[in-house]
Amino acid sequence: MTYLVDTLGPRVTAAALGLPDARPLKRWSSGDLGGPRSEIVESWLRILYRVASAVAEPRSGY
Question: What distances in angstroms separate CA 10 from CA 4, 24, 34, 58, 61, one per listed residue?
């Protein structure tokens, strides 16, 4: 999750996960909440990570 917040920013990450604000992200990152409780949010985190890392990774030949 830290990668997403660092790469996309807390507001964009929260919006992509359907969260009303970035406060849960900060709590999850610090370990206060232990992580998302919803399986849907966990799935979205995985998908968002794949998309963000694919876009951020430079590709040769393009």
Answer: 8, 10, 18, 23, 32
